[in-house]
Amino acid sequence: MKFVLEVTVDESASTQDRAGELGRILRYWGGNVRHYALEPGDGSAVYDSAYQEVGAWRIVPS
Description:
- The protein is α+β, with helices and mostly antiparallel strands.
- Helix content is 29%, strand content 31%.
């Protein structure tokens, strides 16, 4: 299987803010994936700290 995460990062934000937001997203979803079977077809929208959808993750065959 392959875990694919795609996130659109706000290019107008500072490098520090972008890194912080991406780190928060990775920590959150790193802890949350245990709630999924992790089979091809599984996935979910990804939200930033303002609860705006900024991407998605999905499981695909490798």
